[in-house]
Structures are given as C-alpha cells and as structure tokens.
Design goal:
Helices cover 19% and strands 35% of the residues. By secondary structure, it is of the alpha+beta class. Strand 1 (34-37) and strand 2 (41-50) form a beta hairpin. The protein is globular, with a radius of gyration of 17 Å.
C-alpha cells in the first residue's frame, strides 16, 4: 500500500516514478539479473519464479523510438521461418521476444492479421477477433482493433503484429474468450507501466518440474500487481522465446526454439 501511494503521488514526476517502479519490481522480483544502459534505451531484466511457473521479464525505458523494430522471418512475409535468437543476432538486438501468430501452408509461414514494419503495412486484415499490437512514432505501445489501413497511418504506427486477446485496457481486465479461459500455457506478453516504460514477459510452460505455464487470468492479475496499464497476449506455446544480451534465457516448451 505504501509503494502504491508513492506511485500515485509521483506520477507527474517521471524520474521519481521510475525510481519507485524499480523499487516495486525489486521488492517483488529481486534485483535485475541483467541491465543494459544504452543511448537508445535502458533495459532491466528480471527472473520470475512463482508457484508453478518460471519466466523472464524486461522493463524498457526508451530514449529513441527507433530502438524498437518488428522483424519478419528472413525479412519476408512468406518464409521457411526464423528463430527469435537468429533474428536478434542478425539485426544486432540486445533484447528480443517473439511476436504475432502465423499460418503454415506447404512448408511456408506467413503472419496472421496485420503486420507493420518501419511504417510499411506488410500484411493487413480487419479480422475483429485479432488484436493488433505495435508501436507508434513516439515509441508508445498501441493496440486493439484496427479496422482500416488509414487508421494505421493516422495513428503513426511504425511497427506491429497481431494476436489475441487484449489482457488489460486502462488498467482494467478484459474478458478472456471462452476457448482461451483458464488454460495453463507458455506465454509471451507485452504491455506498458503507468509511467510509460515497456514491459516484455515470457513465461515457460509444458515442462514438468520446471514450469507449468500460466493462465491468462493469472497473467492479468500479475500485470495489475506490476502497475501495468495496457497489456496484450502474443503468440505463446512453443513460440515463446526471450533473448537477451546474446543468449536465449528461457526454456521453450518444444525443447528448442521454434
């Protein structure tokens, strides 16, 4: 309660808010297991371990929106696929997670929904079941339903992919679709804190003795404890991957990266 009151009191003071948020995370997760202080962004990585699951979380403070990039497998809409680690290494990324869902046909993979790379719309779909998750020209997380290509341009969206469902909106839990409810799986999640810092989480699952995964309902509650405002579920299961500082930190459910 004391930390919550401090956060509320310091919202208008960005640096103080960041300091208090760091204290909050340290109290809940311990000290960061890795930190990167670059001119484009500050990255702090934490290890998560709760009853029944394990994973990794990164808090990112952006100084330059160009530090964010959506990467297609092989930089192509249609490809044989590429692991998160490989994509990260070839683009020189410090931190990388997997993003949207995909379709497979004839041995080739294509992203589902709407995909935006460097402001260019590489795929588009107005499927209302999907949530778009991306970043605008200010490096702010934007997401939800995208109904037209003009909307992407109007919102200044530069990077993004699609999956489902939306977990939190303005700090409130969104309804989890029935087919996704109360199912324990590996997860990849993205959101932003009330001070604007970004949050990226990968939770391992389907690995007995290591991690059973989490339900989306559990994820919603945990995100609220972290003072996350908006949050989205990305592709999970065997796709979930957390790469930091040259290494894959998590343990993918299939035994190796997808």
């Amino acid at each position: 309660q004391s930390i919550h009151n401090l956060l509320e009191a310091s919202k208008s003071q960005t640096q103080k808010s960041a300091d208090v948020l760091d204290k909050l995370l340290a109290n809940m997760l311990g000290n960061p297991i890795g930190q990167t202080f670059g001119k484009n962004a500050t990255v702090k990585v934490y290890s998560q371990e709760e009853a029944g699951y394990r994973g990794y979380m990164a808090k990112v403070r952006l100084n330059n929106p160009n530090a964010l990039k959506m990467v297609l497998a092989g930089d192509s809409v249609k490809s044989r696929g590429e692991t998160t680690s490989h994509a990260a290494r070839r683009t020189g990324a410090i931190l990388a997670i997997n993003a949207g869902g995909f379709m497979s046909k004839g041995g080739y993979l294509t992203p589902i929904g709407t995909t935006v790379v460097d402001g260019k719309i590489r795929t588009f779909s107005n499927n209302t079941d999907l949530s778009f998750v991306g970043f605008n020209k200010n490096g702010r997380l934007v997401g939800g339903k995208i109904s037209s290509q003009a909307e992407i341009t109007k919102k200044g969206i530069l990077q993004g992919a699609s999956f489902l469902p939306t977990l939190l909106q303005n700090g409130k839990r969104m309804t989890i679709p029935k087919q996704w409810a109360n199912t324990r799986q590996p997860r990849t999640l993205i959101g932003h804190f009330d001070n604007g810092d970004l949050l990226l989480i990968v939770i391992d699952g389907r690995r007995k003795g290591w991690s059973n995964g989490v339900t989306l309902e559990e994820a919603q509650r945990k995100l609220q404890e972290f003072h996350v405002v908006d949050a989205y579920n990305l592709d999970g299961g065997g796709s979930s991957a957390f790469f930091y500082n040259g290494k894959l930190l998590n343990r993918p459910s299939g035994g190796k990266e997808r």
